Amino acid sequence: MSSSLKYLLLVAPAALMIAILFLYPLGFSLVSAFTAPGQPFTLDHFRKVYALYASDVLFSLIIVLVSVALLALIAITLSAVIALSPCRPVVRLLGFLYRLPLFIPFIVVAQMMRTFSRQKWPDEQCAGGGRPGHTAGDALLAGMERDSDHLCLEATGLLPRC
């Protein structure tokens, strides 16, 4: 057996999985996007998406453009103050403030949020009381809101079983 055939046999299972799990669904999606039952080629699906979501996309685009313009204005102003200001205390303060987020990892921020949001779950949710150490802040950090489904919260272990 030649060396290139051995390498081909080693790569074949991965290539087959990519073809089955990625290329086939991609091709199926592309074909179904441009065809409809009884029609060989159509753009009706794209017209419907445009009709439903054009105003939302335009609104999002306006929000992005306004946000970028405001942030660019603020960033250029602050950088000009830092670069051109003769007042050294202001330059040091602004330099400290814009460098500060670089040195605070997200873990520290999450722990601070957990510490400062020590609001316990209401006792009426579960007659048995809460598990020690599990607070509303823990659930909020897990991406849940207070009005989430009780079973969902219970499944995460953040809410005690009743």
TrEMBL record:
Membrane topology: Multi-pass membrane protein
Keywords: Membrane, Transmembrane, Transmembrane helix
Entry GO CC: membrane
Principal subcellular localisation of the protein: membrane
Stored InterPro entries: MetI-like_sf
Membrane-traversing stretches: 57-84, 96-113
Transmembrane helix in keyword set: yes
Annotated localization: Membrane
UniProt name for this protein: Binding-protein-dependent transport system inner membrane protein
Native species: Klebsiella variicola
